[in-house]
Design a protein that fits this description.
2 strands; single chain; mainly alpha
Length: 265
């Protein structure tokens, strides 16, 4: 019954996004324009050289389009639905419902992500293919691994976003904190450039942070830079961070509930 409940919650979140067709079209155009500009930068970067940090020009261009396609799927730059309910007081009603508060929002986020996979991710890939020609996976297993990797990336990014939203229980400026956090994620996740481009002195540390699970690993899986044991380890790293961060988010929920009770909410 609980699986059916969260399935219905996710389905309704997907249907809710269907109401914003004009907003998605505007976002799609913006995404495509920036994707084109970023790809042109990579084209210029590879003039006179065949490879940088193990990426050839075609892989780097494809990498830039994959990152553009993932922006809305993982909600890279945040979302504030939970924070808004805390500010309005509606969170009290949500917390009193007979199901997991974290599970409720996670199911909604997967429904939202599915919408953007279909109506933002796929069109962005098509624009990239028409504009530059992308490097597509050559093995069927890569497509399956990419689906798993993106699903785990959504969970990792959701957990971070969810905890940032919950900070509204203690601060009046959760969005300011979120802005700082999302700036760090944009840099350290591999969105701007692959983590492999970073200096050796910091690259190893960045690769093991949870942020690489949001963008870098899904991109490398799609580009088939990971295979066999390395692929399993990368997916395992994503799964581990998803479990750890969702566990931390659940703990933060219990702390927040005690705060609401103490304040008489």
């Amino acid at each position: 019954m609980s699986i059916r409940l969260y399935w219905e919650i996710g389905k309704r979140a997907y249907q809710r996004q269907l109401a914003y067709r004009a907003a998605n079209l505007n976002g799609l155009i913006t995404n495509a324009c920036f994707g084109y500009l970023r790809a042109v930068v990579f084209v210029a970067l590879y003039q006179g050289r065949s490879s940088i940090a193990g990426y050839d020009a075609r892989e780097a261009i494809t990498y830039s389009w994959v990152t553009q396609a993932l922006i809305m799927v993982v909600a890279l730059w945040g979302w504030w639905d939970v924070e808004q309910t805390i500010r309005t007081g509606d969170v009290v009603s949500d917390l009193s419902k007979p199901f997991s508060y974290l599970g409720f929002w996670l199911a909604r986020d997967y429904g939202r992500a599915l919408y953007f996979v279909i109506f933002r991710c796929v069109p962005i890939f098509l624009v990239g293919q028409i504009s530059f020609g992308l490097r597509w996976p050559s093995l069927p297993v890569t497509w399956l691994a990419s689906v798993v990797s993106i699903g785990l990336a959504v969970a990792v990014c959701f957990a971070i976003r969810f905890m940032i939203n919950l900070s509204a229980f203690w601060t009046t400026d959760a969005r300011g904190l979120g802005g700082l956090a999302m700036s760090a994620i944009t840099l350290l996740s591999g969105f701007l450039v692959p983590v492999a481009y970073f200096p050796d002195s910091v690259r190893a540390a960045i690769q093991w942070l949870p942020f690489s699970s949001i963008v870098q690993i899904p991109c490398d899986v799609f580009l088939e830079r990971l295979s066999g044991t390395s692929l399993l380890l990368a997916l395992g790293q994503q799964a581990l961070w998803a479990v750890v961060l969702l566990g931390a988010a659940q703990y933060l929920v219990t702390v927040a509930i005690r705060r609401v009770v103490v304040q008489g909410g």
